[in-house]
């Protein structure tokens, strides 16, 4: 996905669980590839795994709500 990430123009929220063996190592390369947009993060939620939204819905939901609230109108 990094090969086309430079085409993304919409703001991006990057987050992963601290125990996610797939998303966590991908955060830095993905952030580096997002060259045409603003990026919030990367945010690492300690103890989260691949199932981060199900494990910590209030945490993830709060981060998404804050991200959306900060977007320009």
TrEMBL record:
Gene3D superfamilies: alpha/beta hydrolase. InterPro entries: AB_hydrolase_fold. This is Alpha/beta hydrolase. It comes from bioreactor metagenome. The lineage of its organism: unclassified sequences, metagenomes, ecological metagenomes.
């Amino acid at each position: 996905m990094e090969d086309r990430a430079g085409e993304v123009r919409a703001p991006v929220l990057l987050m992963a669980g601290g125990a996610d063996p797939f998303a966590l190592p991908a955060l830095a390369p993905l952030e580096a590839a997002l060259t045409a947009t603003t990026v919030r993060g990367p945010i690492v939620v300690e103890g989260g795994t691949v199932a981060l939204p199900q494990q910590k819905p209030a945490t993830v939901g709060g981060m998404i709500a804050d991200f959306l609230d900060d977007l320009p109108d």
